[in-house]
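User: Here's a chain of 302 residues. Predict its fold as tokens.
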Amino acid sequence: MIRCADVCKSFGEKTALDHVSVDIPKGKIFGLLGPNGAGKTTLIRIINRITIPNSGTILFDGRPITQQDVQKIGYLPEERGLYRKMKVGDQAMYFARLKGMSARDAASELKMWFEKFGIQSWWGKKVEELSKGMAQKVQFITTVVHRPSLLILDEPFSGFDPVNAQVIRNEILGLKAAGATVVLSTHNMESVEELCDNIALINKSHVVISGGVDGIRRKYGNNHIELVYTADAPVSSVPGIFRVLSDNDESGRHTAVLAVDDASDKTSVLRNLVSQPLVINSYRELVPRMNDIFIKLVTEEE
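Assistant: Prediction complete.
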């Protein structure tokens, strides 16, 4: 849906983006990751045409993005932008009309969203009367009310308790199921693993890695397997197939970590396990968490 090709952006002597290229697939949730100051927000602002790149191109559905395309985008910035003295309902209507909705359609959609979140009583309140989390819900609604084909959410879980953060996660998944493309910029790696199909990691103004989340996690794996089994004696290493790195025994129920030989496969491992006097309770590949990969790559860059 979005192709950023060779995008460069500088502010004076500061390089914010250095030949950044990323592809954001249609109908997917795309994680835009990176430490503070890496260039993520600059790229988001360029996609939204808030700022213009020094060079490079942004394509929207295969053609250069225009200001009219911005109407199809829902943007939730990290710096929240509600008017504190304005009433919630008036403000929600105002933002919906800015996105080209008629007063009738805006009122209908907002009524649906306010009922879904159980916040009908907030309509006549001023924003300054709301907590940070309450204001976040209102801003999320104003971001999605016009049913944008592209959603760009910058730290959407900031200010939410775990229960409401999960509510927003569920809504993001629902919007994806309805056909929306979502760009998610967050430091919450748990949400990345739960929600994202693809990611790009930006550090020091350039792309460090991009691709599918599962593929990246496996790429940085070390071919380890967790085996939970029941036996009177510990599992034995098999030369050329696997070796036992650790084995924790709790009254005959063992949890072991096996390092699989690079030339071996899962069938060979299982074949050699079932030949030993043990009962396999569970068997799973250990792949690194996105948080560990994030830290590894950024630290290596440093």
